[in-house]
Amino acid sequence: IGELIHKINEYNDILALWIKMKQGTLSLNIENFALNDLFEILNKGRKTFESKQLHFTIEPTQAIVKADKALTLFMINTLTENARKYTPRNGSIKVYAEETDSYIEISVQDTGIGLSEDRNRILGEKVYDSSLIGIRDEENRETLNKNKGSGFGLINCKGIIEKYRKTNALFQVCLFNIESEKGKGSRFYFRLPKGVRKIISLLLLLLLPLGSLHAHD
Fold first, then answer.
1. pLDDT one-digit tens code per residue, 54-96
2. Which of 68, 127, 141, 213 has its CA 20 to 30 A from that of 104?
3. What are phi and psi for residue 186, nearest 5 degrees?
4. Structure pTM?
5. Which regions of the chain are under pLDDT 50?
């Protein structure tokens, strides 16, 4: 019952987020933050992956992101939950980030059932019909029908990225994409602007030698 209530609340949150984006009332709280803080939060939920005998790996990162922290966590959580649902027992799921000069690419990679033509539907249609996903996949149809959700999770992820791109030129690096091969797994990933560490920390580092010198005198 507790798990069902949690799932209902989760769907309510996802639907509420979608409605806000649809109405144009979603606001972004942009800040610089350490991506690893979110990875550590994600790590606290690893029991749900281990209970399915999945190898769940989160690679630590030093990346600083400039984005909305809550929405970034929502996106990562959505992608990992999808990977958990569609990866068979003893499979693997890996969460990691790659850093470039201008953006951070956050990936959720799995060894799940993979996608075929459904990839184009998810990416190409603004609002797609989740009941059509996997309709031609006879081999995995039972698994898909059992785990299939509303589709609003991925729709929201795409909508968040679109919202960023409309903000200003800095967020033109943002994107949402999928690499997938049927029967071999998928990589869902998105890009956010690279952030900077808080200036106060840098000032403290610069002032430390001076403080040490005065203490010595």
1. 999 999 999 999 999 888 988 998 999 989 988 989 999 999 9
2. 127
3. -140, 160
4. 0.76
5. 1, 4-6, 8, 135-136, 210-217
Question: pLDDT averaged over the chain?
Answer: 78
Q: Provide the 8-state DSSP code for 173.
A: G
H-type alpha helices, 87-171: 118-124, 141-147, 152-165
Helix, strand and coil content of the chain, in percent to the nearest 5, comes to 50, 20, 30
Do 98 and 92 touch, CB atoms closer than 8 A? no
Stated as kind and residue range, the H or E segment containing 76 is helix 69-86
Going by the DSSP 8-state scheme, the letter that residue 108 receives in this structure is: E
Tell which residue, 75, 112, 73, has the closest CA to residue 94.
112
* Encoded tokens for 112: 């799940």
**In the numeric block, which tokens belong to residue 42?**
């994600």
Burial of 172 (0-12, 13-18, 19+ CB in 10 A): middle
Task: Find residue 106's DSSP bridge partners.
Answer: 97, 190
